[in-house]
Recover the amino acids of this structure.
């Protein structure tokens, strides 16, 4: 944290000129399209999906704990190590793993906090109660799990994971998107969320991860800044020690 404060003080906030309004418009339009075209059919078909039991299994991997707990434990372990006793190679490994854990905690954790505030503030009924409340029943600040559908927390987690993978492995973005979107979509098949809930949550989580990546690039953690576009992973960021 001392390094963060020191670097924030000496490095000006110069972020690349990303067309955020365009991406925001795309996100809103995709969410609206899912609401108009898919939400009602999803509510009508609730409980009739084939393979719902398999979706129940897969959806567990969209829980934030799978990503937050290992990252938190990694930070705890890093703080128990005497870094002064490490060789240069091991010191860089410890530094890189710590930065990665911090990135995951920031992306998944902060987006998770926001989505929980939003879903209870909006209070949309889940598709489990489609027959009782319909596709657009809002009960703001009801603080009832039945009315905590929009956005999806699991999908937000998957969006954040996709954003982190996109930053780290930009050439493999299609594979990362296919896996994370598949896990996010399981929330529809188990009847916990409408399609628009998952689209909104996925976009929210991805945006948080990308913003965290921009901040990390400013600090010099993992990424280096670029004049335009997303930050680029630094050549020194390695999670496995190179062979001598």
């Amino acid at each position: 944290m001392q390094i963060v404060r020191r670097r924030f003080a000496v490095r000006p906030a110069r972020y690349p000129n990303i067309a955020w309004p365009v991406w925001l418009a795309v996100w809103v339009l995709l969410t609206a399209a899912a609401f108009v075209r898919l939400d009602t059919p999803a509510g009508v078909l609730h409980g009739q999906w084939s393979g719902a039991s398999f979706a129940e299994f897969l959806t567990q991997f969209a829980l934030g704990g799978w990503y937050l707990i290992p990252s938190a434990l990694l930070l705890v372990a890093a703080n128990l190590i005497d870094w002064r006793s490490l060789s240069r190679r091991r010191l860089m490994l410890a530094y890189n793993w710590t930065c990665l854990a911090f990135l995951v905690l920031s992306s998944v954790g902060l987006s998770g906090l926001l989505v929980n505030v939003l879903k209870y503030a909006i209070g949309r009924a889940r598709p489990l109660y489609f027959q009782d409340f319909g596709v657009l029943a809002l009960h703001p600040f009801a603080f009832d799990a039945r009315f905590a559908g929009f956005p999806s927390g699991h999908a937000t987690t998957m969006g954040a994971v996709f954003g982190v993978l996109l930053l780290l492995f930009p050439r493999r973005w299609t594979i990362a998107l296919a896996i994370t979107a598949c896990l996010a979509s399981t929330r529809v098949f188990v009847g916990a969320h409408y399609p628009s809930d998952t689209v909104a949550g996925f976009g929210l989580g991805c945006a948080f991860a990308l913003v965290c990546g921009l901040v990390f690039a400013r600090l010099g953690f993992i990424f280096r800044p670029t004049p335009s576009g997303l930050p680029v992973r630094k050549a020194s960021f390695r999670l496995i020690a190179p062979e001598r």
